[in-house]
Amino acid sequence: MAGGTARTTFGEDSVLIVVDVQNDFCPGGALAVPRGDEIIPIVNSLAARFRNVVLTQDWHPRGHSSFASSHPGKKPFQTVTAYYGPQVLWPDHCVQNTRGAAFHKALNIPHAALIVRKGMHSAIDSYSTFYENDRKTPTGLVGYLRERGLTRLFLAGLAFDFCVRYSAEDARRQGFDAFVVEDACRGIDLDGSVAATHTSLAALGVPCINAHDFS
């Protein structure tokens, strides 16, 4: 582990999950989270203090059903009804093997042990790093964490009120201890989604903490 001091050790059961720090979610990207790139130095510093790190990556095929361009007459940020429920329509983003889908060049976590790709099924969007939006299709992350004995999950990344939120909620529902490192996140805040995220996480017993709380 980078650093190698007792101060930087959170235990063999702890893991940092870095959610979707990709070009399309940073300023200049197709679905930029406001000030999304501000979190990268915080995430890098925090990750260097964890022995266990997982990265997640939105990885959509072209023509994905969550893209507004796949629905004639619809615009980004409108909502449609998918077979699994309401679905926000997004600008085309994080298309497989494009620059937008790549991790931001400033992200520097060479010891990350796993990259979880999500949103690869053309008919199902995926916010959570654990399940796609049908709430049934797993990414395999639960099994990986349990096999490794990782039970304390710390989440950071983009966006606080979508992929980080859904990941934290699913982590808690799966019986993990989950924490959101809020200053290592940024939100979109679509129709009050940041406030709704705080309410939901509090109801599930998921604390929102800050990176300095680790000092």
Account of the protein in words:
With 215 residues, the chain is α/β, with parallel strands linked by helices. It has a single domain (10-62, 91-214), classed as 3-Layer(aba) Sandwich (Rossmann fold). The chain has helices at residues 40-47, 141-148, 160-173, 193-204; strands at residues 14-19, 53-58, 79-82, 85-88, 114-118, 152-158, 177-186, 208-209. Strands 5-2-1-6-7-8 form a 6-stranded parallel beta sheet, sandwiched between helices. Strands 3-4 form a two-stranded antiparallel sheet. Helix 4 (193-204) links the parallel strand 7 and strand 8.
Q: What can be said about this structure in brief?
A:
This protein is of the alpha/beta class and about 220 residues long. The protein has helices spanning about 40-45, 140-150, 160-175, 195-205, and strands spanning about 15-20, 55-60, 80, 85-90, 115-120, 150-160, 175-185, 210.
**What would the CATH topology be?**
Rossmann fold
Low-confidence spans: 1-9
The biggest beta sheet, please?
Answer: 6 strands, parallel
Strand order of the largest sheet: 5-2-1-6-7-8
CATH class: Alpha Beta
CATH superfamily: Isochorismatase-like
Number of strands: 8
In whole angstroms, how far apart are the ends? 17 Å
Structural class: alpha/beta
